[in-house]
């Protein structure tokens, strides 16, 4: 991901928090020299300072056949907003788009019920705990044959993140006055995603001792 210095975010805790809050990710791999992608929920964990992602694909989805060979990219995207040049002090300005995105790279390791039943159980339990912990008792009370059938129909994976990139494009390359004006305007929007970008900009401004009201 192209990240100008002004927009780069390297705080691992901040990036992990963002990934967890926006965990329905786009998973991109190379299969037969062609990029393929799936849109799936992921579980983000941190063990001894190492970030790991886990999830699963339907067995008929061919993307898993590229796992363990080359790198896979998980793209986490959050709020975004159009920024009008009318919000800048200088008339000679152009429109742009503010957004937040995190890219996580690694090599997924395949987990199947036949080869690793304990790991498969762990992956499923972590997914349930993350998205609906109340469902766990129902899942474990389902018949063994039904649960086994469901788990035989998926390919689970765990991916150790070897490279993590964060891009917080929040007008940091503009003057303080421009940032203040853009944030103030976005915070007045009726659109939640636009407001979220305004709020993120406000946090940056507060670090400098000022913020839009």
Q: What is the CATH topology?
A: Pnp Oxidase, Chain A
Q: What is the terminal-to-terminal distance?
A: 33 Å
- Helix/strand class: alpha+beta
> Using DSSP, what is the number of strands?
9
CATH superfamily: Electron Transport, Fmn-binding Protein, Chain A
| Percent range for β-strand residues | 25-35%
By DSSP (H or I, 4+ residues per run), the number of helices equals 6
Which stretches are poorly predicted, pLDDT < 50 over at least 5 residues? none
Q: Write down the CATH class.
A: Mainly Beta
Describe the structure.
It is built from 6 helices and 9 strands; from the N terminus they run βαβββββββαααβαα. It is of the alpha+beta class and 213 residues long. It has one domain: Roll (Pnp Oxidase, Chain A). Strands 1, 2, 3, 4, 5, 6, 7, 8 and 9 form a 9-stranded antiparallel beta sheet that branches. The model has no long low-confidence stretch (mean pLDDT 94).
Q: How does the SSE layout of this entry go?
A:
Elements: E1 8-9, H1 12-21, E2 24-31, E3 34-41, E4 43-47, E5 50-58, E6 72-83, E7 96-106, E8 109-111, H2 117-131, H3 136-141, H4 144-152, E9 154-169, H5 176-187, H6 192-207
Antiparallel strand pairs: 1-9, 2-3, 2-6, 4-5, 5-9, 6-7, 7-9, 8-9
Helix pairs in contact: 5-6
């Amino acid at each position: 991901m192209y990240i100008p210095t002004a927009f780069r975010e390297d705080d691992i805790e901040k990036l992990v928090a963002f990934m967890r809050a926006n965990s329905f990710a786009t998973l991109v791999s190379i299969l037969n020299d062609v990029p393929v992608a799936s849109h799936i929920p992921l579980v983000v964990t941190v063990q001894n300072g190492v970030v790991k992602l886990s999830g699963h694909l339907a067995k008929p989805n061919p993307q898993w056949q590229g796992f363990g060979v080359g790198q896979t990219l998980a793209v986490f995207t959050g709020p975004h907003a159009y920024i009008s040049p009318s919000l800048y002090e200088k008339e000679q300005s152009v429109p742009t788009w503010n957004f937040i995105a995190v890219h996580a790279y690694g090599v997924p390791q395949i987990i199947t019920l036949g080869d690793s039943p304990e790991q498969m159980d762990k992956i499923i339990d972590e997914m349930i705990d993350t998205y609906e912990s109340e469902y766990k008792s129902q899942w474990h009370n389902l018949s063994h044959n039904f649960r086994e059938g469901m788990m035989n129909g998926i390919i689970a994976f765990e991916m150790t993140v070897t490279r993590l990139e964060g891009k917080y494009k929040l007008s940091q390359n503009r003057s303080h006055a421009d940032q203040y004006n853009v944030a103030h305007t976005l915070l007045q929007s009726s659109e939640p995603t636009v407001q979220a970008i305004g709020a993120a900009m406000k946090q940056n401004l507060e670090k400098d001792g000022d913020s839009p009201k």
